[in-house]
């Protein structure tokens, strides 16, 4: 007969997570964090006496001994940082899906060859072999026209990565070819 799984309550999960955090603070000597959570000397001594079995039993408790409060001064910047990270990762994915080269990803994001290959695999993209196909004269003209519209955004000879993506979308030329053309500093015929 199979054991019946123990259902944990959300209160038990919260209590267990906080107790594990408190034990980690204790182990690392972070007395300030323990004081911030209102652990006094007696609570710390009791915490030291907890066993792994005690922690397992906490998951069956349907109440908690915690007073939880949101710190808005930390919450909003944390969410902003998470949003920025999500946007950053989304941009990387879009660039790679538009055939951004390793050189381009290294320049903008410091991405290693291993990270680049891993991300391409995660996005189910094949690695490009050899040199990219040269764009046609018509594509070069379209790249140049789109580049000229953005020259005011250049910093150290580069556009922001989002603008390379916009050029790709406007011209239909793979980013690998756009990057190569613009980095070679070709004298485009306009």
N-to-C CA distance: 79 Å
The largest sheet, given as strand count, sense and whether it forms a barrel, is: none
Compute the number of helices. 10
Class per helix and strand makeup:
mainly alpha
Task: Count every beta strand, where a strand is a DSSP E run of 2 or more residues.
Answer: 0
Element order: H for helix, E for strand: HHHHHHHHHH
Mean pLDDT: 87
Describe it for me?
- This protein is an all-alpha fold.
- It contains ten helices and no strands.
- Helix 8 crosses helix 9 (161-171).
- The chain is elongated, with a radius of gyration of 27 Å.
- 15% of the residues are buried.
- The model is unreliable at 186-190 (pLDDT under 50).
Question: Mind sketching the topology for me?
Answer:
Blueprint: H1 10-28, H2 31-36, H3 41-48, H4 52-58, H5 72-97, H6 102-109, H7 113-122, H8 137-149, H9 161-171, H10 175-184
Helix pairs in contact: 8-9
How would you sum up this structure in a few lines?
This protein has 190 residues and is mainly alpha-helical. It has helices spanning 10-28, 31-36, 41-48, 52-58, 72-97, 102-109, 113-122, 137-149, 161-171, 175-184.
Properties at a glance:
elongated; single chain; 190 residues; mainly alpha
């Amino acid at each position: 007969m199979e054991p019946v799984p123990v259902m944990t309550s959300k209160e038990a999960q919260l209590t267990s997570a906080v107790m594990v955090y408190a034990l980690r603070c204790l182990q690392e000597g972070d007395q300030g964090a323990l004081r911030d959570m209102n652990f006094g000397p007696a609570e710390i001594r009791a915490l030291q006496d907890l066993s792994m079995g005690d922690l397992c039993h906490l998951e069956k408790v349907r109440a908690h001994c915690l007073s939880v409060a949101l710190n808005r001064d930390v919450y909003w910047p944390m969410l902003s940082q998470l949003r920025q990270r999500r946007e950053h990762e989304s941009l990387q994915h879009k660039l790679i899906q538009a055939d951004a080269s390793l050189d381009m990803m290294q320049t903008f994001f410091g991405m290693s060859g291993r990270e680049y290959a891993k991300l391409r695999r995660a996005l189910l993209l094949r690695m490009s072999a050899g040199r990219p196909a040269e764009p046609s004269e018509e594509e070069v003209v379209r790249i140049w026209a789109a580049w000229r519209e953005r020259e005011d955004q250049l910093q150290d000879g580069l556009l922001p990565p989002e603008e390379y993506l916009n050029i790709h979308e406007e011209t239909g030329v793979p980013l690998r070819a756009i990057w190569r053309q613009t980095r070679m500093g070709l004298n485009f015929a306009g």
